[in-house]
Write a structure and sequence with these properties.
alpha+beta, 1 helix
């Protein structure tokens, strides 16, 4: 029988062609992966920045809308300090310690704060609002004619590290410049600018020092996406000059690679001027 001596396989040229094609495919896959990774990192930074801004605006809106609350007319409530980069507001809303378990506050101070002939309705064993529930906190006199309860005074500003701070007073204190008598909470990070403009409903801002005419506060915040620029983030150069609606420059970007966003909102102080 004849002996077969055939050799089967790939030639060197065939192998080199296959390797070249494989390298091209792998390079394309790696490039697509890098592109997707850059997009993902950049989008996550932008989402965090937007969430940062959203949280800050919601907290400030809540406090500014309560600013000036003064049911008895006896409290020194309203805007106490109206700065371009910081403000202090006061309200008679019972504060953070005004809960039924605490004593010596508006809920249990043995005073008829609302002048209706009933003392401390929230603890009188009566369904004062007729909803079938007895001694609810919202039935009580939650105000007491002052703004010195804990949390009744609030200050907003930013520190040197770009943290937007919410200060609130301790019980019995009305000095919002003393850190030992206040509590500070960071409500947003990586804030480059915070700007306030005070309005009375007309276009021109309220003159400096005329606090009793303030009815609206225009808040402008400039935030950046993170405290560092990720190596894999999509590159961008920010040379923007950020201005508020009045045309005042609130921040000038230094030409770095941070992504930024500016938001402006006008908040009605619904308790002011009543």
């Amino acid at each position: 029988m004849p002996k077969l001596n055939e050799q089967k396989g790939f030639s060197l040229i065939e192998l080199m062609v296959a390797m070249a094609i494989g390298s091209i495919v792998l390079a394309g896959i790696y490039g697509a992966y890098q592109d997707q990774l850059r997009t993902s990192i950049t989008q996550q930074r932008i989402v965090d920045m937007n969430q940062n801004l959203r949280t800050a605006v919601l907290i400030m809106e809540r406090d500014l809308r309560m600013g000036g609350a003064n049911p008895t007319g006896d409290a020194t409530a309203g805007i106490i300090t109206a700065g371009a980069n910081n403000l202090v507001i006061a309200m008679d809303d019972g504060g953070t310690d005004n809960i039924a378990t605490n004593i010596n506050n508006a809920l249990a101070d043995n005073i008829d704060n609302d002048g209706d002939g009933l003392v401390d309705e929230g603890s009188d064993g009566v369904d004062n609002d007729g909803d079938g529930l007895i001694d609810e906190e919202d039935e009580a006199e939650w105000y007491d004619g002052d703004t010195s309860d804990e949390g009744e005074m609030v200050r907003f500003d930013i520190d040197g590290s770009g943290n937007l701070r919410r200060w609130f007073n301790s019980a019995g204190n009305t000095d919002m410049t003393d850190p030992t008598k206040t509590t500070t909470v960071h409500i947003a990070r990586n804030i480059d600018a915070l700007n306030f403009v005070y309005l009375d409903g007309a276009d021109p801002p309220v003159p400096t020092g005329v606090l009793e005419d303030i009815r609206y506060v225009q808040v402008t915040i400039v935030a950046r996406a993170g405290d560092t620029v990720p190596v894999m983030a999509r590159k961008v150069t920010d040379n923007t000059v950020y201005t508020n609606p009045q045309g005042t420059v609130v921040f000038t970007a230094p030409g770095d690679q941070f992504r930024r966003r500016m938001v402006t909102t006008t908040i009605k102080c619904r308790n002011m001027g009543l």
